[in-house]
Amino acid sequence: MPRSKVGSITKTKEGRYLVRVRHGYRRDGSVRCLSKVVDTAYQAEQARNALCVQLGISRNAGDEITLTAYYHTYFLPGRKRYLTNATIMDYDLHWRRHIADAFGHMPMSAIKHGMVQSWIDDMTRPTAEHCVRTLRAILRSAWDDDFLDAEPMRKRFRYPPTASTPRVLWTAAETTRAIPVLSGHPLESLFLVLLGGGLRRSEGLALSWGDFKFSASSDYIIAIVDVTEAVTVQDGRKTTKNKFSQRRVVIGEPFSSRLKTLSGKVSESICSVNPRSIPNIWKRLWEAPRGNSKDRHAGAMCDANVPYLPIGTMRAVHETLHQRAGLLDTVNSRMHGRTNVATGYRHYLSPDIDVYKTAAVGMSNLLR
After folding, report:
1. Are 16 and 39 in contact (CB under 8 A)?
2. DSSP 307
3. pTM above the 0.90 mark?
4. Tens digit of pLDDT for each residue in 304-324?
5. In what order do the strands lie in the sheet with 212-216?
6. How far apart are CA 324 and CA 129, in angstroms?
7. What is the DSSP letter of 210?
8. What gap in Å lies between CA 279 and CA 105, rounded to an integer?
9. Cis before 254 (ω within 30)
10. What's the pLDDT tens digit per position in 11-65?
11. CA-based Rg of the chain, rounded to a whole angstrom?
């Protein structure tokens, strides 16, 4: 372990590190010294910075270590202890594509606001937002670890303008036409759960038939399922996204009766398709426009004439149809496992003119 300009870190034996910092003198003339023994190199660097603070030493370790060194030595190992593989892969993607070449060679304390602003000026807005979010996470982690004296990236950034296009979602009529097309399809059960219950795709893939409870009346069937787990390509089976995502979902007609008909063994998954193959299998339901076989977004669903939507967007269709049916946005948001209504409006909800007309009529009736 190399010595630092302030304090020292000595490897005593495999897996143990002695951290020692000396500064100033006591009243009896002896040197003030603090020490600590930790298990990992990452903990040793954190301990050294903390001891410097206790002894009143203003040590800006960000002058000594480059962003690349901190990212690989401290940031990723520290994050891997509690973040999902999907999140780590997202961090690493933006690091490799954008951040490493621009700032990796620089000492962390040398990265200034103006540099970052100039860097993102030529990016598209989504790329700029993702890069700033990742860079901020790295530098704030360095600040938390006492590598930087001042909180980084507090100033606001001006993002490149972006063209806003209205979100396209299925209407009630289009949804009704699409349901029969999936009859007998390998993705039918998953489709019914996402569209009828508003689940995330990862949550739907974690369900088995034993998770469903069906309640039937004379002419109506309700399916009830508790959502507690998720399955992703990167992490396999895991708990749901957050505590709000753990919820009870109620699925009504026409989805519930079809799910009851399809239900199999208690331990059998509702979808046996490999998660990696789902997007491509789903796209085959659409006919691409003539002359452009790769663009399915402008095509029509086979035998149903509805626009292309990714299968994960069924959650947004479910939420928007609930809104059009008059469900309160607060209840709608909670049913979908979200922390606030703003998230729904930003990523999922797409109110149409009928919703606004209903609101206008309702206010008029209130004022009469």
Report:
1. yes
2. B
3. no
4. 778 888 898 999 999 888 888
5. 212-216, 221-227, 247-251
6. 31
7. G
8. 38
9. yes
10. 887 778 888 888 777 777 788 888 888 887 777 877 777 777 677 665 555 566 7
11. 27
